[in-house]
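User: Hi! I have a protein structure encoded as tokens and I'd like to know what sequence might fold into it. I'm fairly new to this, so please keep things simple.
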């Protein structure tokens, strides 16, 4: 069940990167969107298969997304939504990592 948020974030990040590229021809948008989306997908796969470090990968992807979207949060609804989603995902996966380590 814990893999579902990771796969959802993977899809959102990937689609967001593609849309950002389609609108502005921004190569960093598509690279970042697909890269962070791939990290979430890989973490979700590891969680689904019961392998180690899936939660940590998802927490790291959330941290990266939050760090890149928070400075641009006031520029519009997309960065604000990314900031909110990455905050929620980081809280969720950070708690999972914390609980697992205790």
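Assistant: Happy to help. Inverse folding works backwards from shape to sequence: for each of the 102 positions I chose a residue that suits the local structure. Here it is:
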């Amino acid at each position: 069940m814990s893999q579902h948020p990771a796969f959802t974030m993977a899809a959102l990040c990937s689609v967001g990167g593609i849309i950002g590229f389609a609108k502005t021809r921004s190569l960093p948008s598509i690279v970042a969107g697909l890269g962070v989306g791939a990290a979430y997908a890989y973490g979700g796969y590891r969680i689904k298969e019961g392998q180690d470090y899936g939660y940590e990968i998802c927490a790291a992807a959330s941290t990266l997304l939050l760090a890149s979207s928070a400075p641009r949060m006031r520029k519009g609804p997309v960065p604000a939504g990314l900031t909110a989603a990455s905050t929620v995902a980081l809280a969720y996966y950070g708690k999972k990592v914390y609980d697992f380590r205790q």
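A useful reference point when you look it over: The radius of gyration is 13 Å. Feel free to ask if any position seems puzzling.
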